[in-house]
Amino acid sequence: MPTSSSPFTSSSTSHCYEDLPSLRHLAAYVRHSICPENDTQCFKRAAHLQQADYLDIDYGAISRGLALTIFHSQPPEPERWNEEMKPYDSLAKTEVGILMPEKAADSEDLLFEGFLAVLGEDKELSMSILCPCRLQLIIPFQEPTRFSFPSRHYLAPTISGSTFLITFPSPSGLHPTLSIEFPPSMDPPEPACALHTYLTLPSPLFVDKYQLSSPKLLASNNLRAIRALFGETNLEAPDWMIKQWGSVVLLELAVPPPAQGRSKTPWHADVPLHLRYLSPTAGGKLQVVVPWPVVFWACPAEQGRKMDANPFDRVNVGYDSLFSQRTIFHHFQPKPAIKGAVLVEQLTIPVVELGATRWVESGTIGVICLGAAWVVWKLTTIFSRDRRADTGRAVKGKKTQ
After folding, report:
1. Residue 181: enclosing H or E segment and its boundaries?
2. What whole-number distance in Å separates Cα of residue 218 and Cα of residue 175?
3. End-to-end CA separation in angstroms for the chain
4. Which of 25, 27, 153, 237 is the most exposed, having the fewest neighbouring CB atoms within 10 Å of its CB?
C-alpha cells in the first residue's frame, strides 16, 4: 500500500504487466475483427501498429469511450509520411493538426504553432507544407493556431546527468540485485526535487518491504525509502500460488554527496530482489523478463502556477498517480550497453529439472520410510530392553524369597 507521506496519493487505477515484444498479433486482430471489409485505409493503419513506439489505450468507464493513442518517432513507411485521412461518419468530427514546437517564454511551458482543420468543414483554403522531416500534407485550414500550456513531463537536464544503465551483477542466484548506474555528476533541477525509480516486477520477483525498512541497508545501497508498493506482497508464497501478475514499487533514491568521491566515477543505486519458488522446467532453466524501471526527478510546481490539463501528456502510466497533481517529472533517458537494444533484462534462473522430479519424489519417500523404520526399530529395541530388564528383576525377586 502507498505510504502516508503527504506528497503521495494512492492510485485508484488497476495495474497489469505482460511481456509483449511485438504488436503483430494486435495488428492482425484489428485488421480481421475491427476493420470493415475492403477498408484499405483501416488495413493500412492496422499495419502501422507494428512500427509504433508506443500504444496507449484509454477507456472511460463513465463516458464508455475508447481512445487509442499511437506514437511514431519515425515514418511508418520508408523515408516519408503518407497519411490519407477521411471522415468515417457524417456525424463524427475529425480534426487534423500540423503543429511544430516552439520555444516558450517559460521553460516549463510547451508552445505549439501550426494549423488546425476539421475534415469536411474547412474547405475555403488549402496549403501544402513540407518540413525537414519530409512531412508533406495537403490539408484545408482557415486560421493559424498558437497555444501553450504547462506540462508535467520533461527530459532531465543533460548538464546535470540524464542517463542511466541497468545491470544484474552475476551470478544473480536466488537473490538478484538490480543495479542502476548514474553519471558521476548529478544535480537536481531544483533543490526541492527528489530522485525516484518506479519498478515493475513480474510475479517470480519481489521486494522485501521489511528488509528495505532498515536504515543501514538503505544507506549502503543509496536508497532512501519505499514510497509505494502495490501488487503481490506475500513473501512466502511460491510462484504457482500467486494469483496476481506481480508488483510495482516506487523507491526514492539517495544521491551521494560530492564528498564521497562521485565526481570522477559513476555511482549506482542497488535494489535487492528475491525470487519465489518456481515450477520445474524441462531444461532446468527459466527465463524471467524484467523491464527497465522508470527513473525521474519529482519536483514540486511553483506556487500559484496553473497546472492545466495537457492534451499531449501521457496520464495513468502508474507512477504519476502516486504524486500530487502539482508534481513535475524530469525523466532520465535509458542508455543500454548495446545501442538500440530492447529495454528489458532476461534473468536465467536455475530450477528443478522436470525429468529429475521423480527421483526427488522417490528419494523423499525412501528417506521418510527409512526414517520411520529407524524410529520403529529404536522403539522396538528400547521396548525389548525394558521388557528383559523387568523380567530379570521379577526372577531375582523370586530367588530372594
Report:
1. strand 177-182
2. 16
3. 82
4. 25
